[in-house]
Amino acid sequence: EVQLQASGGGLAQPGGSLRLSCAASGFTFSNYAMSWARQAPGKGREWVSSVSTGGDETTYADSVRGRFSISRDNAKNTLYLQMNSLKSDDTAVYFCERRDGISPYAFKDFWGQGTQVTVSS
Predict the structure, then answer these.
(1) Average pLDDT in the 82-86 region?
(2) Which of the four, 34, 61, 108, 115, has the lowest number of CB atoms within 10 Å?
């Protein structure tokens, strides 16, 4: 059974940092590109960032480029998102997704339950 379990969310102050993790199981993690997406209250899901199978190629949405960093550890079957310089607009539920490429438009075939990130003073 494919499972993606996101964790690490919580409350952060504007300008603060959080690190999200996504534990993958039930498939060969290193064979797939992975991504993070988010959904704010009352809005649609927004792609945030993707990483290639080996971790050497990354892509970012303009809204997070320079502040967020995606990475993966294939030995631990884990995806990460380091979020710095957080803004109130970053408040959302964050999901990890399995994809077939690093383009924002790459097909996604599985995603897990999300983790809530709230940025507020």
Answers:
(1) 98
(2) 61
